[in-house]
TrEMBL record:
Residue ranges with Gly residues bias: 802-814
Biased composition (Basic and acidic residues): 822-833
UniProt source species: Streptomyces triticiradicis
Positions of the UniProt region annotated as Disordered: 1-20, 122-155, 754-773, 802-833
A Pfam family assignment: DUF5682
Name by which UniProt lists this protein: Uncharacterized protein
Amino acid sequence: MSAGPPAPGDGPGGRGPGPLLLGVRHHGPGSARAVRAALEAAAPRVVLIEGPPEADALVPLAADKDMRPPVALLAHVTDEPGHSAFWPLAEFSPEWVAIRWALEHGVAARFIDLPAAHTLARGAEETDPGTCEDPGPGEDPGTAGDPGPAGDAVRPDAATVRIDPLAVLAEAAGHDDPERWWEDVVEHRAGAAHDPFAPFAVLEEAMGSLREAYGAGGHDRDLVREAYMRLQIRSAQREFGDDVAVVCGAWHVPALRRRAAVGADRALLKGLPKAKVQLTWVPWTHRRLSRASGYGAGIDSPGWYGHLFSSPDRPVERWLTKVARLLRDEDRGVSSAHVIEAVRLAGTLAAMRGRPLPGLSETTDAVRAVMCEGSDVPLALVHDRLVVGEVLGEVPESAPAVPLQRDLTQSQRRLRLKPEALEREIELDLRKETDAARSTLLHRLRLLGIAWGEPAASRGSTGTFRETWRLRWEPELSVRVAEAGVWGTTVLAAATAKAEADAVGAPALAEVTALAERCLLAGLPDALPVVMRVLADRAALDADVGHLAQALPALVRSLRYGDVRGTDTRALAGVAAGLAERVFVGLPPACAALDGDAAEEMRGHVDAVHGAVGLLGETTAGDAGSGGVRGRWHSVLGVLASRDTVPGVVRGRAVRLLLDEGELAQEEAARLMGLVLSPGTEPADAAAWIEGFVGGGSGGMLLVHDERLLALVDAWLTGVPAEAFTDVLPLLRRTFSAYETGVRRTLGELVRRGPAPRTHAEATGSGSGIPGFAPDLDTGRADAVLPLLSLLLGLGDPGEGTGLGAGAGAGGGTDTSTDTGTDTRNDLARVAP
């Protein structure tokens, strides 16, 4: 046989001789109904469908009672599961309708597209999106590059540019919206013609004209696919004669109808790379059928198309009733009168716009005007829940699956955690056996890279016995499960092996400690010894205090899980204590001579270590040494608070932490602040100290409740020189902008009100009233520094009539004949001992 399928002509049933070529739009409900009508009329002996032929053995599963579309054929390379591709099918997909018709009538159904073995073996250098060189999750190599009437390019201007046939035909008809044009000419006129083959003949003629004008239309890979399909059609004709029906993208029909030599077709297929692949059915979602998901053959409104296909009559009325039910569930007042008025408005709009029936645009406009009162906010919910939809398909247990998938499915069923396309939150109480098991499963999946659930902030208790998860199942997670299958046949075994490999390959100490925490969360006792051995080795070799400080919090948090989850964490305690000791020893030297960015980073480390020490002190009883772990840490904070070589932001934070812990009296904290905010301190360093001391959410409340500290900050700020104020302003804005609105308002009121009325002692000078200053003058202390001060000011020898007093260094009397000496002495003498 040297020629392809014969050209159409007069024949039985109003169709031409040769195979019945049914060109369709992928995921088009009008095409699906037309395919069913044509198959009923033609009654072929075999149905050939565009799709990977390796899936022929999976066709009978489509008749299983547990198979519910949308579903997809998943193909992946056996040795590289992540190298995969999907062929999605919805209830309204013509291919799915053809499969179901064949199974219901006992007719053979076969796939005839280029084998997935060739598609997935394509080299990375091939970037033609006509099929998919490495589509990844959600791509459809069988149809993404098949424009049919639903290709993914926009405008044809040359044969080398990928065209969108649907857009070309719509433009030729004077429409600027291809989706709307397709609805008018196909979806809303389904069943109008008495000849079931007429729609396909018209569409074939239109595609033939496009192929004549544009050739492959930039879809060069399609030439290879079409050659393979022609060979498969010839093979079916030899077996069944002309009682063959072919369901494929309308774009391919002219090429399949064209006569071509067998040798030429085989030459196109010669030398194609090949890979070993496995195929199965996996659940799919309406959301992943949408064009917005990146799916090349996607449609804009899967939910709307599903409604059109499943509604036997009055589709507009039924649709608007669905919308009303959704809005009522969201506590919006929508009555039956709203539905009636919306139906009338949609019909009126369709008549005014010259459309045969109200389409999605008319019903959307009617919903916005009548049910949403002109607002697009509730309309967005309608689009998300109904127009696109949250439907998740199901596949039977008998479908082929990797062992890991089967174990996960059993766990989901046992724990009553059903995968759903709609995002939902669940609250887990880890004191309950079932909830603890659910948490363990979700943590194991996260460790394997299967992000079915993501931790979320709890709206109730924040205790360690409660967790909140946000769950949403996406089709590509099936690929992640297949990929994770290389680590083991069960979720537990795979997570254990993955954790051990991650520990050995972790580049940083903090990643190892974080992994130890995840192992405890995931309940992986067999992986923990390996992680702990790597952790001990890395900690012994890492001398960077910053790395050690980053690693400590996760390690200490891990110790807490033994209380709630019943996990033995004794192995962690010794490592955590040793790591904390190394941080205590190395932190003061590491804080010396830091620039601004490094100092800010170090402050974060100090905060993290402080929190970790609080947990470590509660977890490890009977610490050796004075005061235990907390006592050692308080000593380190005291050193940081007193060293001038430590940046101001770190010193201020150390003082604040000691104050919060009750290790520093408020009077002493005020004295230290007074010294830092004295005129002798650089404004930038003083601002950094303030940021460290009162920065954070609770710093504002400290100033609100201690007006002495607020007065010190206020007095210092008003005394900052103008030339330095611009430099310290960013630091101050960052500090005070972090406070809550109410705290900032209260601070503003306190500053506006000014200081509290002074006592009689303060007014008469018998008491300074200022923290850090003595109530009376100490002339002896002032005289002691005058000789050195005279040298600094260049006033000469104090014993040679400088007016500053001879013999001051011995603490004797001084000559107070000069105003300068008196004023200087009086100021210095007020400094408290």
